[in-house]
Amino acid sequence: MSERSNCQPAGVAGGAKSARAAWREAGRDLALQNALRKRAAGVPTYSVPEAAALLSVSQEHLYRLVRADAFPAVRIRAGGGDQGRYVVPAKAVERLLDAAAGSGACVEVGDWAPTWQTPTTGPATGAAGVVGPRGGDAA
After folding, report:
1. For every residue of 9-41, which 3-state class applies, written as one string?
2. Which one-letter DSSP state was computed for residue 2?
């Protein structure tokens, strides 16, 4: 008879965290601390891991939403390559949370995100003339 509970993954005795799980949790904690510091200082953007920590979702999930144009972000890259970085406007995080709090109901990010994808004019307009969730990169 095994002393291990059915709820514990194999190889994890006594509820001890694996090194990988501990590393991920430490990364989330650090991202949340950084995000809260930025929020207090009024920094206008968050990294994807910081925004994910504020929203209590995984960074992988938030990256998927950003790539699917379902969450506003600015893509910073050189040339047309795949390499680059996303930053999330702090206003996007705040507006999403305000929308949920104000409605008193669940807000679907996919329904909410198009409000950030309206054509505008001005310095943020990209070559195509459309400002999307990526600050002008409509593609």
Report:
1. CCCCHHHCCCHHHHHHHHHHHHHHHHHHHHHHH
2. -
Residues 22 and 33: their CA atoms lie apart, in Å, by: 16
- Looking only at the bridges linking them, the beta strands covering 45-47 and 74-76 are unpaired
Q: pTM to 2 decimals?
A: 0.69
Rg (CA), the chain: 19
How far is 133 from 118, CA to CA, in rounded Å? 9
For residue 120, count other CB atoms closer than 10 A to its CB: 10
Residues 15-73: pLDDT tens digits?
567 999 999 899 999 999 999 999 999 999 999 999 999 999 999 999 999 999 899 99
* DSSP secondary structure, 70-135, as one string: SS--EEE-STTSS--EEEEEHHHHHHHHHHHHHHTS---HHHHGGGG-----STT--TTS---TTT
Spacing of C-alpha 132 from chain mean position: 16
- Interior/surface letters 81-110, b for 16+ CB within 10 angstroms, e for the rest: eeeeebbbbbebbebbeeeeeeeeeeeebe
Cβ contact 94:109 at 8 Å: no
